[in-house]
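Hi R.,

Here's the chain you asked about this morning:
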Amino acid sequence: MSDLTQTVTQYLALWNETDAEKRAAGIAELFAPGAPYIDPLAAVEGHDGVGAVIAGAQEQFKGLSFELHGAVDTHHNIARFQWGLVTEAGAEPVAIGFDVLVTGDDGRINGVYGFLDKVPGA
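And the predicted structure, written out as tokens:
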């Protein structure tokens, strides 16, 4: 497993972490302090911003979890990957997205740029 694949795995685990303190600690460890998170529904910067977006998604989609769909494609310090929001492991996703994650020299996330391919009710 490449370092970037491991970073993606850790990143998705943050979206599934329901303990706010553990999630905040994971964000602080994985993200550079001013890193942006930008998708069609949110544009935030920093640990608090990322934490708020994740908490909001968890509130909106209680009981669902994010999982990796397919392989992580990487080069240099960039990873792109598709994720699904599922009711249980391996289930048909109710939402599907595609994220691009960029890391710095220290391996921390310097930015995440997301796209939504399938949204509930669309």
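Residues 37 and 84 are 18 Å apart (CA to CA).

Let me know if you need anything else.
M.
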